[in-house]
Design brief:
Radius of gyration: 19 Å
Shape: globular
Strand content: 5-15%
Distance between the termini: 22 Å
CATH architecture of one domain: Alpha-Beta Barrel
Helix content: 40-55%
CATH topology of one domain: TIM Barrel
CATH class of one domain: Alpha Beta
Oligomer: single chain
Strand order of the largest sheet: 1-4-5-6-7-8-9
Structural class: alpha/beta
Largest sheet: 7 strands, parallel
């Protein structure tokens, strides 16, 4: 098996820089779009044969060094009976958003074997298919990101309802974060038992907060999640966007890898994070829509600024965009692998 990704997570020396991409299985691939003509995202997630097929596509097409489970960050909420849909071109839409303490109290704990058996079966299929190839990454959204969907009811840019709830309903907010943290811990541990070999916690929207608010309202719960997962003895990755303003606090968790976006250089980020942790990132996904000469220039700039190669995983600062030419991402993977 190609274990360069796992070694890099532990800051070990690797023969080449490992590469994988957030949303590497998805809408930019013709094979996936063909599947979506007949199935919704939720249909695919709940059909292990289809979900595993989608997760495997980038391994053969792109030659990446890790597979990531094909699921949605809403999967654990689906499991506990939250009434939601994933609407094309919009994202998750919650039918009855949380607006009070009584709504929070109704959320229950996940029972993986009963609530999400399809996901566990997908992991089993993938491990069998990938055993001679690359490791499998499992994941979950972090508490703040899940809370934002539950409260807003749909994707948002300003997080008015979420932050107002956080500021004005302290008891309800704390209970919500506690319940979501416990849900995530159970969810991720079930993935490990099923066979994933690394875990990534996505806090995609936490950049909406100030550093002080992050430390008060979010960080204690994130720390709890990572502390609960250290005994699993697999690499743990903390991912966020727009975290450049509080990266030291964001990295103050018991994980192996911090994933950063394009708003801060890897050199500066590593100085704030500390060189004991590995780092993952950080090409702007929009660059993949450019001529390859432009992509190459930015990749060269990333590599020329790296303080060290041990513990570096090449990735994007966020997910692959739907408009991305497959040829560009294939060439990018090969180019990074050949960087010495």
């Amino acid at each position: 098996m190609n274990i360069t990704f796992l070694d890099a997570c532990y800051s070990k020396k690797t023969p080449f820089t490992p590469v994988w991409y957030m949303r590497q299985a998805g809408r930019y691939l013709p094979e996936y779009r063909k599947l979506k003509e007949s199935y919704s995202i939720i249909d695919i997630i709940k059909t292990p044969e289809l979900a595993s097929k989608v997760a495997l596509q980038p391994i053969d097409i792109l030659g990446v060094d890790a597979a990531i489970l094909f699921a949605d960050i809403m999967t654990p909420l689906l499991g506990i009976g939250v009434d939601l849909d994933i609407v094309e071109s919009i994202g998750p839409v919650i039918k009855n958003p949380i607006a009070s303490l009584s709504h929070v109290e109704k959320l229950r704990l996940l029972q993986p074997t009963q609530d999400i058996p399809y996901l566990l079966q997908t992991i089993s299929i993938l491990r069998n298919e990938l055993k001679e190839k690359v490791p499998l990454i499992g994941f979950s959204a972090a508490p703040f990101t899940l809370a934002s969907y539950l409260i807003e009811g749909k994707p948002t840019r300003d997080f008015i309802k979420t932050k107002s709830f956080m500021y004005n309903n302290k008891n309800a907010w704390e209970l919500l974060m506690e319940k979501l943290s416990d849900l995530i811990i159970v969810y991720l541990k079930s993935q490990v038992r099923a066979g994933v070999q690394a875990l990534q916690l996505f806090d995609s929207w936490v950049g909406a907060l100030s550093e002080n608010d992050y430390k008060e309202y979010v960080l204690p719960h994130t720390k709890k999640i990572f502390e609960s997962l250290t005994s699993e003895n697999i690499p743990l990755i903390h991912f966020g966007t727009n975290t450049a303003g509080f990266l030291t606090s964001f990295s103050d968790v018991d994980c192996n890898v911090i994933s950063i976006d394009w708003r801060i250089s890897i050199e500066k980020a590593w100085q704030q994070i500390g060189f004991k942790k590995a780092i993952q990132g950080n090409l702007d996904p929009i660059l993949l829509l450019s001529d390859f000469s432009v992509i190459k220039k930015h990749v060269d700039e990333i590599f020329s600024s790296l303080p060290k190669r041990e513990g570096y995983i090449f990735n994007l600062g966020h997910g692959v965009l739907q408009q991305t030419p497959v040829e560009n991402i294939k060439r990018l993977t090969e180019y990074v692998h050949n960087k010495r």
